[in-house]
Inverse folding.
């Protein structure tokens, strides 16, 4: 493959990685917003009910009922916070990274090969090759 085509493949794979990463970050942000919204409304709407149930049904004191309400809130904070923090790359992102790495390696090899070919076949290479060839001829003539 030509270096330009390899560069385009590398950039294509990198673009796919960035778009999938952006989707993953957006999903995490959405889970975070859901967690905060749920926390806000849950705290407002159900604190009184939960506290009343702890007082009447369970027969707890006012302090123990308040601690039960806080424990219940903490459970949901941890649950949705963990969902917001959970970030595993999906299969498409992993495949794009593998493709990008392979094409980048091919690009490096193609550039190295074209550079080496340019040096050997260019003016410097011809002069150097001629000098090495003439030196080799002189060595062979002395022995012969």
């Amino acid at each position: 493959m030509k270096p330009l085509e390899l560069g385009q493949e590398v950039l294509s794979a990198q673009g796919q990685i960035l778009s999938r990463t952006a989707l993953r970050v957006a999903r995490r942000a959405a889970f975070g917003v859901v967690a905060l919204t749920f926390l806000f409304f849950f705290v407002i709407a159900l604190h009184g009910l939960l506290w009343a149930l702890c007082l009447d049904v369970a027969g707890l004191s006012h302090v123990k009922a308040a601690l039960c309400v806080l424990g219940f809130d903490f459970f949901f904070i941890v649950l949705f916070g963990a969902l917001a923090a959970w970030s595993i790359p999906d299969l498409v992102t992993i495949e794009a990274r593998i493709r990008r790495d392979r094409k980048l390696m091919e690009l490096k090899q193609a550039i190295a090969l074209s550079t080496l070919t340019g040096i050997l076949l260019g003016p410097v290479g011809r002069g150097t090759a001629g000098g090495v060839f003439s030196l080799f001829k002189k060595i062979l003539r002395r022995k012969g």
